[in-house]
Amino acid sequence: MLGISKKKRISYLVNLAIVFLIYFGISTLIAQRVINSYYSDIINMMLINIILAVSLNLVTGLLGQLVLGHAGFMLVGAYSAALFTLNVKLPFTVSFPIALIIGGLAAALSGFIIGVPALRLRGDYLAIITLGFGEIIRVIANNLTITNGAKGLYGMESLNTRHNLTGMFTYIFFIAVFVIFLNFTFGTSRHGRAVIAIREDEIAAEAAGIHTTYYKLLAFVLAAFIAGVAGGLYAHQIGLIDPSKFDFNRSTEILVMVVLGGMGSITGSILSAGVLTILPEALRGFSNYRMLLYSVVLICVMLFRPTGLLGRSEFSLTGAFEKIRSTVGGNKKNAAKKEG
Amino acid sequence: MEFLSQVINGLGIGSIYALVALGYSMVYGIVQLINFAHGDIIMVGAYTVFVILVMMNLPLWLAVLGSILFCGVAGVLIERIAYRRLLVHEAPRISLLITAIGVSIFLQNLYQLLFGSDPKSMPKMFAFAPLQFGGVQLTSSTIINISVSVVMMAGLQLMVNKMKIGKAMRATSEDAGAAKLMGINTNTTIAFTFGIGSALAAVGAVLYCNTYPQIKPVMGGLLGLKAFVAAVLGGIGSIPGAMLGGYLLGVAESLTNAYISSNLTDAVVFGILIIVLLVKPTGLLGKNTREKV
Amino acid sequence: MPVLETKNLGIAFGGLQALQDVHFSIEKGEIFGLIGPNGAGKTTVFNLLTNVYVPTEGVISLDGVNIVGKKTYQITQNGIARTFQNIRLFKDISVIDNVKIAMNYQMKYSVLSGIFRLPSYWKEEKAVTERAYELLKVFHLEEHADDLAKNLPYGQQRKLEIARALAANPKVLLLDEPAAGMNPTETKELMETIALIRDKFKVAVLLIEHDMNFVMGICEHIVVLDYGRIIAEGSAEEVRSNPKVIAAYLGGE
């Protein structure tokens, strides 16, 4: 039916079931206060980082272009969303989703404005121009009255209340799931193929009839949109934002998550975003050596696995299961041969 | 007159950017790496001066020489330990970039552990009374910065164009494969480039210490970024370009500080970068290359 | 009416006149050869036809419409597809995706249909997969559909590149040294394949080749370039006996 094979449909269902299982598991633990608010905040931050890493993967992994100002798009999204919820007289449950979309659109618009001129050029220009954008947008936020300068914005509401401990988690979790899903389906659609073709060989892609500027812009603006949404989530998750939270270091942090996990590998991005959020928290006891250790790990991984931990491959439960089955099956066959 | 003073003042600060930009430019020219650790080499250089001059109380010339040597060696070592393996295996360039970011974080945190995160004050090093030319006042640091940077660039230009190692550098950046076939040891050449670039950053660090009173472990971050901007502005891979970019940046900064607002300096710097790239993607003095089809 | 025609085509790089007054016309379904010594400007002709370089003078008309100034991807969509002298495949993706990418512009479903997997996604993807398999079968590549392009042996990479060009549904197929690096058996097989695709896909083929047996054996019309100018043209027989051509190749006067 419509080309969906039975196997694929089963794998979709399995993945959907796993997603809901994880959701109900964690949200029950949070609601029952088994996971306290400190840890649930870390989980939320981890999910936001996953969203950011996966969105950057669209540009860095699929398109193969370097971005050094992803935090800039996050800033645009965070401020737009926060300004909306702070100034609009609507119940927060209504204004919050609208704010997220506004944050995404504002970031997408800035991505478009930067992308149009920058993506015409080949090479590292996008990296340099996004770097410039990230710095400029931060300086602007530092100097405008509407953004309240270096003090930033505060007093943003949260969906979490005394009686509802999982409000933010639910939102962030399902947006993260959706972004991962989107990354996967986009990557395997005709548009994603065109983007990958540009990564592989821009001249050949153009010669194959691909409108390269359009597809570059598409991937870039989509990534900026998602980063904007992530910014909106972030602003309301932590309740106060200021420009210093979106500096160059933040941009490189996101880039590191993508490259470390394996460029182009969505599961790799998820994995490393998760680990890199938890690791610094876990290393709090060694706070002096924490960043030193982090940098050494980073250098070593790059030296010995230059394509990242997972390379371009994806980790999937069904895939892992198949692999185990085939190795076990293979052994059986070999054994049978020996007996024969 | 006020305007002219600001411009000259800007040239003085721009000299520091220019010296650091040279390192970015040479390294990018030869291995296409935006070496984010390069900014932190300035910090290493500044702390070396601090250790020798203030902590060990040794003479100034020793501090300067020591800093240059130490940074040169550090540059070579960093290339050997953190980059060589990736360069030899022709790993994706982005992996190299992440490694450079790793080295940058490492250096910043190492120095924070060694010296603490609070700033250290530096004594005035080469101070003499300001000179007056008509209504324009030249401070000692401005004069020293500009003259040192000009001498350094001339020396570097001479080395790259006339000396054997300079020719090897140009050949390697043009086509590393062909250079290898012609019997050039590209590994040594690349290491040498890192060494020279880092030594120049140390000179920049000395000038920095002479210009600004304080140093701290994270000082290399923004300084490095701006020096990189200078390199791109002038045309990456071009020595006169890096100098021009550095001076322009310094002047733009100084004028923005004086006539607009010191809060907006960074925005102006990066704004100029974006505009220049859009109008002339290869930078002011960069050469055009076209991919062969 | 010829399917592809150039008039007074020329380009100068700086002061160097790389091509001058290049004119030829290719009929529908014709196999047309472009030969000449190294550096004569053959690949530059391809680069002009596909607007990788912009000609400094002249007209290129495809089906009677001037295409000078159109973007490379538009020219491909209008009906000129090419291969490259140094193979340019999408190395790190599968063989079949290489072919599907060239069919991209013929597909219609939107970004949202792709993301949300709407019925139009499934329908078009199914159709395109079938078409891609058909095409791979012509080149005996269907068994390697899911392999990475970079893992194919050299000869098959050349074939895949031709398959990819055909996937763009061209009226004119430009082949830049398709037989380079092939052994005599492979070359012979390639000649048959080219004749076959001309008949099957009703395309005109313009090819650059150094292997004279190949060119003489397959091309119905040949143009000879030397120092950026046409020095001879005609059938294989006519070109072969032309003293100017012999002089150009042997370097004599």
Spell out the key features of this protein.
heterotrimer; A: 340 residues; mainly alpha; B: 293 residues; two-stranded antiparallel ribbon; two-stranded antiparallel sheet; 11 helices; 74% helix; 3% strand; globular; Lipopolysaccharide export system ATP-binding protein LptB (chain C); EC 3.6.3.- (chain C); L-isoleucine transmembrane transporter activity (chain C)
What does this structure look like?
The complex is a heterotrimer of chains A (340), B (293) and C (253). Chain A has helices at 6-31, 37-63, 70-87, 92-118, 125-143, 167-187, 190-200, 202-207, 212-238, 248-261, 266-282, 287-304, 317-339, and strands at 153-154, 240-241. Chain A has 340 residues and is mainly alpha-helical. Chain A has a domain at 40-247. In chain A, helix 4 (92-118) runs antiparallel to helix 9 (212-238). Chain A is globular, with a radius of gyration of 21 Å. Residues 332-340 of chain A have low confidence and may be disordered. The radius of gyration of chain B is 19 Å and the shape is globular. Chain B is mainly α and 293 residues long. The longest helix of chain B is centred in the N-terminal third of the chain and has 30 residues, at 2-31. Chain B has a two-stranded antiparallel sheet. Chain B contains 11 helices and 4 strands; from the N terminus they run H-H-H-H-E-E-E-H-H-H-H-E-H-H-H. Chain C has 253 residues and is of the alpha/beta class. Chain C has 2 domains: 4-79 and 169-250, P-loop containing nucleotide triphosphate hydrolases (Rossmann fold), CATH 3.40.50.300; 90-153, no CATH class. Chain C is built from 10 helices and 10 strands. Chain C has helices spanning 42-49, 72-78, 95-103, 111-116, 119-138, 154-167, 184-201, 212-218, 236-240, 243-250; strands spanning 4-13, 16-26, 31-35, 57-62, 65-66, 80-82, 172-176, 204-208, 221-226, 229-234. In chain C, the strands form 2 sheets. In chain C, strands 6-7-8-3-9-10 form a 6-stranded mixed beta sheet, sandwiched between helices. Classes of the chains: A mainly alpha (340), B mainly alpha (293), C alpha/beta (253). Chain A binds chain B through residues 60, 66, 117-118, 121-122, 124-125, 127-129, 131-133, 135-136, 139-140, 142-143, 203, 248-249, 252, 255-256, 259-260, 263, 288-289, 291-292, 294-296, 298-299, 302-303, 306-308, and chain B through 32, 34, 36, 82, 85-86, 89, 91-92, 94-99, 101-106, 108-110, 113, 221, 225, 229, 232, 261, 263-264, 266-267, 270-271, 273-274, 277-278, 281, 291, 293.
